[in-house]
Model the fold of this input.
Amino acid sequence: NARRMQRGADRLKMPPVPESIFIDAVEQVVQANIDWLPPMGRGAMYVRPLLMGSGPVLGVAPAPSYSFMIYVTPVGPYFKGGMRAIELLISDEFHRAAPGGSGGVKAIGNYAPGMMPSKMAKAQGYAEVIYLDARTSTYIEEVGAANFFCIKDKVLYTPELTGTILPGITRDSIIALARHMGYEVVEEKVSAEFAMSADEAFCCGTAAVISPIGSITHGDTKVTYGDGTPGRITTTLYDKLTGIQNETEEDIFGWLHEVPL
Done:
């Protein structure tokens, strides 16, 4: 996360925060708010780092000063009552990012334009929007603010990082975990047509970890994966990854970071 923020800051002409300062700041804020940490299995403490510029400038130019902040907040379980599959809608009208832009950066400007498409999809009964590439409107890029995976013949496919897709930390973790478990993972352009012919699909991000996809609708076509419930491989990956987070599974990757108390 610290290194991704550094890459994003460089792209936006902001001063990168040294990794040591990033980690120390997270540790201090978690320590100061430890009384708000939910019990195991009852939720988590969500950590949100933020780098913002400010100053007496009205022109379009880099800010004269910057603030690095860490927010933490207790959150309840993402899936209350057990993991369930979601229904998604492919958008032909809206695009998240275009080649040459800042789609690969975790910047607030990439989230604001998605508010209206997301609200429109939810008004129709869908959980979120699937965005296609801006150049051809053929290939899947992201699900709202989450990365996309589909599974066909026990092979995992996820859109390759082309600069328009956020390099998610959970995405990287799933790729490493799946390969360790013996699954083939292919990073390439994933067409909407191919994704809708897959056996399973899911999206991933920090909050939900993995959200199984029960169905995808594109225009007049709706495809349901299996019986619309979380798929077997999707569920296995979710259990393994959350097991590492909860320390019920061995962390062979060295992902866990102990906060000194």
The helical segments are 2-11, 19-32, 115-123, 169-180, 192-195, 232-245. The mean pLDDT is 95. The CA atoms of residues 196 and 223 lie 6 Å apart.
